[in-house]
Specification:
The chain has one domain: Rossmann fold, CATH 3.40.50. Helices cover 32% and strands 19% of the residues. It has 8 helices and 10 strands. The strands form 2 sheets. A 6-stranded mixed beta sheet has the order 5-4-6-7-10-9, sandwiched between helices. Strand 9 and strand 10 form a beta hairpin.
Length: 258
């Protein structure tokens, strides 16, 4: 099977039982380190619920990402900038970032926007940075998806779990997600560096977050972002004006006009 990242032909590396019914093959690419399943014919069944029930870390992850992104985006853009949370789920992250004071919009073609309704991305405008969490592992064609993201913004901040070394078997790594069947693409640091080189962008890693950027990011911004765990985000958030009340007024007026 041809690697969906670099195009190298690979043989089946191991197999696993997805959704407790489909015995599917996994392919490991020695050239770029990418792991992929065979063509995922089971996805319609896997996505009967857009967010799988086993994702118990959904809210904790969002709160952690808010801390890192508050520091990172403020250090880069100050009080300016327009941002997009791509594959934004129910809109939790967008609402939290707007509450702090960042001009975030939402986009997700599979999930209903519950918490950030009224602040959807228009799908035409470019943005200063894109966030996209726990989505790369869902990509059927990762290079096509990443190219599209980089055409929309020069900075893409994303999360996906990198597999440990040596390459784990299905029973040895929870992130394969056999029980829900939604994870079909898996990356190593080698893979992400390969992708960055292919698109001529810089690659950075901060905690659980990864960054593709067309411009070099100063080291002091990367180092300061890492300090979010010590409360730097709370200090910087005081320099921003929350959009909670302004958003309420905007939505109320919009409802009245309709």
């Amino acid at each position: 099977m041809k690697c969906n990242v670099c195009g190298t032909m690979n043989h089946s590396f191991f197999s696993g039982a997805v959704l407790e019914k489909y015995n599917i093959n996994y392919y490991y690419c020695q050239n770029c380190g990418f792991i992929q399943t065979e063509y995922p014919h089971w996805l319609e069944e896997a996505y009967s619920k857009p967010i799988n029930v086993s994702d118990t870390g959904y809210l904790v992850r969002n709160l952690s990402n808010v801390k890192y992104l508050t520091v990172f985006l403020y250090m880069l853009f100050g009080t300016n900038g327009v941002f997009l949370d791509y594959a934004g789920g129910y809109g939790v992250f967008v609402r939290l970032m707007r509450d702090i004071g960042f001009d975030f919009t939402w986009y997700d073609k599979y999930t209903k926007n519950l918490f950030a309704s009224g602040f959807e991305w228009d799908e035409k405008s470019k943005v200063d940075a894109i966030t996209i969490f726990e989505t790369f592992e869902h990509f059927v064609e990762p290079m096509t998806e990443i190219q599209s993201l980089l055409q929309t913004s020069n900075i893409v901040v994303f999360s996906t779990e990198l597999y440990p070394e040596p390459v784990p078997r299905p029973e040895d790594w929870w992130y394969y997600g056999l029980e829900h069947g939604q994870h079909i693409s898996f990356y190593s640091k080698k893979t992400l560096k390969y992708i960055a080189n292919k698109f001529d962008v810089y690659y950075y890693k901060i905690g659980s977050l990864h960054i593709f950027s067309r411009k070099k990011i100063p080291n002091y911004i990367l180092l300061t972002t890492k300090l979010s765990k010590f409360g730097v985000d709370r200090l910087l958030s005081k320099k921003l004006t929350s959009k909670t009340w302004a958003d309420y007024q905007y939505i109320s007026k919009k409802v009245e006009q309709n």
